[in-house]
Amino acid sequence: MSRTDKTKPLWIRHAEHGPRPVHDHRDGPCDLPPHPTRQPADTRCRWEHPSVILLGSTCCAGCHKRGCVKEWQDYVKTGNRRTRYTGRRETRRYVTGELTD
C-alpha cells in the first residue's frame, strides 16, 4: 500500500473496495441508495459502515496478526539482504576488473 492510500479518507477507501449492501425489507421495498455516500442515508436499506474496511481483509486493512507481521518482516529482511549481497558482489566484481561499466 502506498502512502497516498493510507491518507485517503475512509469513505473513499470504502467506496473503492466495493462495499456490501445491508438490506432491511421488513417495512417496505428496497430503498438502497445507488452508491455509498459520505453521510449516512436516511433509508432502511443502506451500505455497510466504512469502519468495516478496517476490520476486514482488504489491502487497506492489512493483516495485523502476529504471524502475518512476522512473516512480512522476514520477507522484507530477506529481500534487503539479497539486495545488499548483490550490491557487494557487483562492487567486488567491479573492483577486481571482472565487471566493466
List keywords for this structure.
single chain, 101 residues, mainly alpha, two-stranded antiparallel ribbon, 4% strand
Annotate the secondary structure layout.
Blueprint: H1 3-7, H2 10-16, E1 21-22, E2 46-47, H3 52-55, H4 66-96
Antiparallel strand pairs: 1-2
Would you kindly provide a written description of the structure presented here, covering whatever features stand out?
- The chain has helices at residues 3-7, 10-16, 52-55, 66-96; strands spanning 21-22, 46-47.
- It is mostly helical and 101 residues long.
- A two-stranded antiparallel ribbon has the order 1-2.
Structure at a glance:
By secondary structure, the chain is mainly α. It contains four helices and two strands. Strands 1-2 form a two-stranded antiparallel sheet.
Instruction: Quickly count the helices.
Output: 4
User: Strands across the major sheet, in which order?
Assistant: 1-2
Report the uncertain regions.
Answer: none
Question: How many separate domains make up the residues?
Answer: 2
> How many DSSP E strands?
2
